[in-house]
Amino acid sequence: MTGLKKYMKSALYHKIIKFFAEHPGSIDTSRGIATWIGESIPRTDKALKELAKAKILISHVNRNTRAYGFTTDKKLLSLISVRLKRQPDMKKRYH
Amino acid sequence: MKKETGHQKDLFKIMLEDENFKRETAILTSLLGGSNINIWLTENGMELALLDKRKPSCSLIKSKKNSLKSCRKKIISLSLKTRRKKKPVCFECGKKKHGIAIPVVQGDRVYGHLIVCNAENDISEELLDLFINFISILIREVQKRLELSKVYNSIRPRAIALSTIHTIHRIISSTLNIDELLPKLARLSLQIFRADQCCIAIKNNGRSRPVVMEVAKNGVVNKHGKGKKWCAATLKRERVISKGRIVSTKKTLCVPLTDEDVIGAICVKGKSAGLHFDNFDKEILLTLSEQAAVAIKNAQLYKEQEDITIGSIKSLAAIMDARKGLNYKTRESFAKIAIAIGKELGLRMDRIRNLHYAVILHDAGQMSFSDDLLMKSEKLTGHEYRIIRRHPARSAAIIKHIPFLKPVVPIILYHHENYDGTGYPKGLKGEQIPLDARIMSLVSAFGAMITTRPYRKKVAIDTAILEIKKNSGVQFDPMAVKAFLKVVKEPAMQEILKKGI
After folding, report:
1. Which residues of chain A have a CB within 8 Å of the CB of B275?
2. Disulfide check for B326: which of B111, B170, B260, B321 has CB 3.0–4.6 Å away?
């Protein structure tokens, strides 16, 4: 559907998706999200852009700010919830 | 065996994972005689769990059917007994094994018990003291960890929410266009509150009803949707705007937008996944509304200022056009062509707006020319032509004093430059000429062709289009010509040209 299965195999993408699933109302910049998940900003920024492209995240763009929020697509949300239940945590493994 | 609960889980975790406690637990159990010791934990005298989740190593349990049940019963009754006394109790079980039940006390409260059984040796006073000391250290450690996790669990969501509010502030405060700001604000609200609907109503000065902007779940702005009625009715019924009241129910949150006075209201309805709005949501919406009110007020002030500026520009253009025998409507038609070309070429809104101003003001410098020169029907002399060629620089010099119009200056200054470098004032070539000025050059030339001038009659629109096409890559930028040809073909544009000229 959105490559969710592929993303969930990466520790970084998994962490981001899990963060948004736990805080669905959160809207933050890549710097903010990198802080919350304890990852580096450039790597997080790249992953966020990718997830926004896959419509798992929604990006809110302004002149100087690009912020990300969680998808509102019910179907996708339930798919994410199922995947997270099946795979709640992940060992560090980057692709 | 029942599932571990709060304290049990933490106590067990520490006893099993923390190296110091693991060592001490091993020493204490060895003092009691061997490795067959069972350590139980009860919580509030009800829940019972066994450390390490092993099966109890007890010959009594192994030998008799249902003895685990009776053992559990005995341990729970022991824990209830010690709960009242708040003191450790030594006991002997059916197999003549020794045991001890130590209450886990914190302040006045007994949270549960640590029960050690199946000991070979009798439990001495010294050993009891050691156990009590061990338990008190264990409890302090658990308490510390619980406090830390409590802080983490309560502070982290608030910090994340605060960061969200800060991000929203950054997004909305940099938008000064009210038509962009309101849908953006509504979409962001939907996202933060995971709501089905959001509406923003703005007080309309001079009118009784506020302007309601409604946004549907999928983020599409829908000013005329069903939600509009709901929003207007709620705001009126609850007097959110008239009295500045807050509506906070499980399904709806409505707060006034206040900046000195109430300027409007923001409402969210229907939290997704069957959840309800809570006080935390209310707090967040209140904070958001404060920021939104400031952003809306700023956008309104900016719009007012812009309207004044545009009004002045239009008046100036009307004066110029009256001298040249044109009417303002004509100029607005050309502005529409320029805007359409700009959009076709993917220019940003601010650049399109500047292009609009440039079309209106590009001949402002001609104000300084005499009527004789402007209205001359014969061929211009060399000297007169040199004067005329100065008008882009003069126009630019007039408008450069208005800070708001600074980005328009290069468009006006270079609108008589030709793509092949044969234009004036600087003889710039190709991409040296700003794209906006290349568009302006085309629109200005097209405008000149299809309107009557004192020195020549106007040509037909189709002829003018052909002329533009012929000069693609010579006088005009091919990219701008391509966009122009696409734009003028559209029926709406044909209509504008017919009506405007």
Report:
1. none
2. B321
